[in-house]
Specification:
Elements lengths: L1 H10 L23 H15 L4 H18 L7 H8 L12 H4 L2 H6 L3 H13 L5 H20 L9 H6 L5
Helix pairs in contact: 1-2, 2-3, 3-4, 3-7, 7-8
């Protein structure tokens, strides 16, 4: 989770201005929190409120994301996400973008098992990114983080039509 936040902030000055070299100044004064940093923090706040009840967790995810989004406007949120943040009754908008994967790291930190990690990742994604690819992205990132963090090995994540539908994403 900290690596995701630090990486997002350190890379913020390169967003929309890609830099492919590994040789670059780290954490420059122009670096800033982005939409992904803010929403990762919102997911962490929801995790701290409890992860045992998935419906309650989803409610807390929505509340925290909208609260953090209101406190930190103009951080690069996409237009549909901006509408979701300000909607009187926010609904998932079938996004298959990368936002759900970018904000998911706190669930990997908090989960006590891989099945719990995947359930939390799915719950955190589907409040906005309810397209199967949006959910799969969040699950793949969270599973990779939890497995790498606990085993020290990189897992092979299977992301294909058949694996998304069956929910069996790990080999």
């Amino acid at each position: 989770m900290l690596g995701a936040l630090i990486g997002d902030i350190a890379g913020s000055i390169y967003e929309w201005h890609n830099h492919k070299s590994k040789d670059f100044p780290f954490l420059q004064p122009q670096c800033r929190m982005t939409d992904d940093s803010i929403m990762t923090t919102a997911i962490a706040a929801a995790v701290l409120e409890g992860i045992d009840d998935l419906d309650e967790f989803k409610t807390n995810v929505i509340t925290q994301m909208r609260d953090f989004g209101a406190r930190y406007p103009g951080r690069g949120y996409g237009p549909r996400f901006e509408r979701w943040l300000t909607s009187p009754e926010p609904q998932p908008y079938h996004s298959l973008g990368n936002g759900s994967a970018m904000r998911v790291s706190p669930v990997a930190w908090a989960a006590e098992s891989l099945p719990q990690c995947l359930a939390l990742a799915k719950a955190s994604a589907e409040v906005t990114h309810d397209h199967p690819d949006g959910i799969a992205g969040a699950c793949a990132v969270a599973a990779s983080a939890v497995l790498t963090g606990r085993t020290g090995r990189r897992p092979r994540i299977l992301i294909g039509k058949d694996t998304r539908q069956s929910g069996d994403m790990l080999e």
